[in-house]
Amino acid sequence: MLNITKVDHIGIRVSDKLVSIAFYERLGIRLLSDAGFEQGHPIIMQHPSGVFLNLLGPANMPNDRNILMDVDEKYPGITHVSFRVGSMDATRQFLADNDIPLSGQFTFRDLQAVFIRDPDRNVIELDSYASEEHGTRGDDTGKDGYRAHP
Question: What is d(CA 17, CA 148) in angstroms, rounded to the nearest whole number?
Fold first, then answer.
């Protein structure tokens, strides 16, 4: 077994540096440094929770493959990043206050989830659990509950 201790960072290729930085800053993710975006090096951002994002660019090809979760065409590739939030009510209010529209949502057992998109239409899932020890993973007795999942 490989001794993985945590997720280190999430890399997202973006098409517009300033628009993407502004979007992620609205979510509370702070710009730490720009290691050379125009040369394909990351813009490094960090949320107070410890989550790091590397915004990579610049994208040089139009998006010809759809990797979004909530469309009928399903291509291989990373479909989304998921962040756990403390309160779904507070999250919904924050998104509404900041004019960030939902692109989907579902509830399953003690999990509530909403989906948003960044400026490049990358899907971000925001999850809230009713308890710290949630029972939604690893138990296939309720697999039909995920039918609302995009």
Answer: 33
Measured CA to CA, the distance from residue 143 to residue 30 in angstroms comes to 37
User: pTM to 2 decimals?
Assistant: 0.81
Taking the C-alpha atoms of residue 111 and residue 91, their distance in angstroms, rounded to an integer, is: 14
Three-state secondary structure along 131-144?
CCCCCCCCCHHHHH
Cβ atoms of 114 and 126 within 8 Å: the answer is yes
* Tokens of residue 88, six digits: 């779904």
| Number of residues that this document lists for the chain | 150
DSSP H helical ranges for 28-136? 88-97
Contact (Cβ atoms closer than 8 angstroms) between residue 139 and residue 40: no
Q: What count of Cα atoms within 13 Å lies in the side-chain half-sphere of residue 123?
A: 21
Tens digits of residue pLDDT in 103-137: 999 888 888 999 999 998 888 999 998 877 555 55
